[in-house]
Records
---
Amino acid sequence: MGWSMTKPKRKKKRKQPLPSDEFRNLKGPKRENLITVRKSKGLTQTQLGKLAGCSAAMVSSLELGRANPSVEISMQLEMVLETTFFELFPDL
């Protein structure tokens, strides 16, 4: 017989993308200067983050252009990397 005691499976509704979703993964310009200076000093993202007082994820976000630095982080990066703000972040 075709009847059972289990619940019938529901079909999943396909979620319609919101207009704002298409801009969710938008990145800013990649900051090649920051990456070059960091690598020339022989630092990894984790090491630079510890020296600048932020996480490696924040350093990665800064390098990829997903985030802009706060005043405190930018000052620490200037001191650690011994360069100016405008050399590290020419797009700001």
Note: The domain at 28-86 is CATH 1.10.260.40 (434 Repressor (Amino-terminal Domain)).
---
Amino acid sequence: MGQGIVGHSYIFHNGIKYLVTKTTNHTISTTGAPCSVCQKFDNNGNLEKERYYDNDGHAELDVDYTNHGNSVLHPKVPHEHTWDWSDPKNPKRSPYDD
């Protein structure tokens, strides 16, 4: 896979239809299309992360399919991280949500 956007599809999550964008970009934006998901793949085509965006296009949930090279902090794969937008200029991703 090359760098960049590699395709689109749709999934249903909790009864909501999400537009899915697939990418191999190293970073994923904290904002996106409302009710969408960005799936990040490594250069070998393995799914590394899904980032879900809420109705306002803010990142609300990351599902990580790796342990980030740290099995002590992330023993469970996949695992989730939620986003806190209480300070819109500085959103924070949780360290780990079981």
Note: The chain has one domain: 5-91.
---
Amino acid sequence: MVKITVVGSISTDFVIETDKRPQVGETVEGKNFSTAFGGKGANQAVAAARLGADVFMIGTVGNDTFAEELQRNLKENQIFLNNVERVTHLPSGSAVITIQDGDNAIIYIPGANNALTPERIAMAREDLKTSDLVVVQNEVPVDAIEELVRVCTEMQVPVLYNPAPARRLSAEAIEKVRFITPNETEFSVLFPGEKMEEVLERYPNKLLVTAGSEGVYYHDGEKVKLVPANKVVPVDTTGAGDTFNGAFAVAWSNGLTIEESIRFGNLAASLSIQKMGAQTGIPTIDEMKGSEKYEKEWHLK
């Protein structure tokens, strides 16, 4: 079984379904309210674990009742929590998600996720050293991400950097990571004013630009390719990108090619958006195997 270490956010999602999002000063009636487990780091860790990897989480939660539930959920998903710490001076992370016609808008409150420091990264060095792939996102402080990339590069451990939400990272760190997986908005923040085709050519087999219902663009060393998304009717797109990243990480770590891994990630994401919730929609490996597309294309170790 491959080992994937996920460094990132652990949060609670407060989900509101509505037919109309309010304008400034306006009150509208919502259709439904629910809470769910989330945080991009936790979502990607759950995706990788459900798809067959040994997953180790590095992150921070608060000293509140939400923290207890967040840790319990990760344990139930068979995720190792040796390097998940509780901090007393900040609440656990949270996000308010509004869903309209299957599309989401999110306000993210980092809380305890901002307590992930370079020093905490250094303390997890042994788990990082034995990882087949390390996955990180932007819902933790940039200095922790920079230190993570530095440490992993030193130990020759590949890093998948998912720059979500959009934020700049040093050019040096971008050069060192193995994969970068922005969506189109995040791409424009990382590479302002540059044409996608030219940047993809500059980072062949490294830069994967997710384009929602279109699919994923990358350069295979010869030309720019689009790996089409699977066409489904979405119920809730929350967590689709996280599911893709976790699934891609599992597939690539198991020796699949980049294109095969993208197709695997696309399938997992398409299954996830047919259910409500960032984590409740994430498929298991058995659900993936039940898909006709899986039977035709993939056989993981």
Note: The mean pLDDT is 93.
---
Amino acid sequence: MARTESAAGVPKPGPAPVQGMGMLIGLLFLVLGAFELMPGVTVGDGPGRLFGVFAVSGAWTLAHLVTGVAAVFCTRSAKLSSRFLLVGGACYALLGIAGLLPLPRAFDEVFPMNTAGICLALGFGTAMLILGAGWRRRRPVRRR
């Protein structure tokens, strides 16, 4: 049910769906970063493995936490949320594609990538791009 303003009786619009999706993705990245900091969840020496599957490092943890904070901050407006989804989705998709290429050892030590991590980065990146682009293409209907 929409809230109404007392003076004009006009319903206030609620948050846009893209804002909710941005918040959901931001909280997901924050939880992922928090799991990476827990000693029992991340196993292994050097580049550890989250749940024994995803290769993680300190740089990945920082990237996930910064992405989560940025997503939560950008949910203040629909325009910011869609821009975040587009830019963040492009970054994660590029990281996933970079994981498929033969990169220098220095990059692999900072951002270790295994098959599961590549699939996760490509999946998150693609989903974020679709959500951000879908909202940008939506135009409000003009009434005559």
Note: Strands lie at 42-43, 48-50, 54-56.
